[in-house]
Amino acid sequence: MKISKELKFGFLLFIAIGLYFLLMEGLGFSDLYYLRILNIFIIIYGLNKIIKSNLSEGKKSYLKNLFSSGLTGIIAISLSILGLVIYLNFKDAAYIKNLSEAFLFGGNPSIAQYSFGLFIEGITSVLIVSFVNTQYWKTKNVFIDNVES
Question: How far is Cα 24 from Cα 43, in angstroms, rounded to an integer?
Fold first, then answer.
């Protein structure tokens, strides 16, 4: 059984994001929201890497690369949110309150509400990064789409 490249890269991105957040937690920086935002660079790197991989294999369709990049990001974000839910279930209830005060939420969200909000934010970021990365590669004239005039 062959695992799709998007699943493989999505899993690797999930591992990288997880390690980044565990490192921040271990160093005591998890309450600094601006450091949490830096995970976007992991996403940019990973989604750019899958486009490069596709191009090196001769897959030069703009839409297929856009789809591949977006799917990879969605897999990574979904796995990351699942990992967060599991992690938060092992932490005490006060921990999520600390996270929500330092980031986008107010009040006292449940784990489900917090995870859903992060999922929406993550998917939005992934779709934007996928589009921008694909547009970047389009400016390099690497895509060959057969469009009949």
Answer: 17
Give one DSSP letter per residue of 42-82, joined into a string.
HHHHHHHHHHHHHHHTT---HHHHHHHHHHHHHHHHHHHHH
Answer whether 33's CB lies under 8 Å from 102's CB: yes
The size of the chain, in residues, is: 149
DSSP 37: T
On whether the pTM is more than 0.85, the answer is yes
Position 121, amino acid: E
Instruction: Using CB atoms within 10 Å of the CB of residue 73, give its burial: 0 to 12 exposed, 13 to 18 middle, 19+ buried.
Output: buried
Over the stretch 82-134, which tens digit does the pLDDT of each residue have? 999 998 888 876 677 666 665 555 667 788 888 898 899 999 999 999 999 99
